[in-house]
Specification:
Number of domains: 1
Shape: globular
Mean pLDDT: 90
CATH superfamily: Aconitase, domain 4
Largest sheet: 7 strands, mixed
CATH architecture: Alpha-Beta Barrel
Low-confidence stretches: none
Strand content: 15-25%
Number of strands: 7
Structural class: alpha/beta
């Protein structure tokens, strides 16, 4: 998993509440278990009309937001079904951080497991960021070690669980966390093979 330390990037405003996982990545894109190639389906029904024609005024089709790595949205982001393809699609597009007032729990947890930083800020701060990113079209900075979002000469502090912070900064998903104990696992298996060798055929 890619490490997350600080990120300075274009932030795309998506002033919508209750963005569910089917909006993030519709069901027809769930046939794969690969984490790549899903950017095409990200927000598909908002990016394209029923004939498949690109909707030019959708935020991710407009410059400079086509290169956005941060997404700012309203509350209850990631609600709906518990599809891990949702953070995969965001990450495949290039989104490494989402900022909202609240998230659905499963989506929130899936973000951390895939290297996306989901930041929670008060609604008034998020609305201010939405207004500024829509107007200014500039880059904002996310400083995970110091837990600060810096945008347009203002700072917004956010809270994060210390263990999740540690995992993101060090690029540790569930497998990476397990591999940190590789020496202890090897020692246990060595001892077990000696005392219970019948288990190993």
């Amino acid at each position: 998993m890619q490490k997350f330390d600080t990120l300075t990037a274009i932030a795309a405003p998506l002033p919508i509440q209750n963005v569910d996982t089917d909006m993030i990545i519709p069901k027809q894109f769930l046939k794969t278990i690969k984490r790549t190639g899903l950017a095409e389906g990200l927000f598909f029904e908002m990016r394209y009309d029923v004939k498949g024609k690109k909707i030019d005024d959708f935020v991710l089709h407009r410059e400079p937001y086509t290169k956005a790595e941060i997404l700012v949205a309203l509350d209850n982001f990631g609600c709906g079904s518990s599809r891990e393809h949702a953070p995969w699609a965001l990450l495949d597009f290039g989104i490494r951080c989402v900022i909202t007032p609240s998230y659905a729990d499963i989506f929130y947890n899936n973000c951390f497991k895939n290297g996306i930083l989901p930041i929670v800020l008060p609604e008034k701060d998020v609305k201010e960021l939405l207004e500024m990113t829509a107007k200014e079209e500039g880059k904002i900075s996310v400083d995970l070690p110091n837990q600060i979002v810096r945008a347009f000469n203002k700072e917004y502090r956010f809270e994060i669980d210390p263990f999740r912070k540690h995992c993101l900064i060090n690029g540790l998903d569930d497998i990476g966390q397990t591999l940190q104990k590789a020496d202890a696992i090897d020692a246990f298996e060595h001892t077990q093979k000696q005392s219970l060798n019948w288990l190993y055929g």
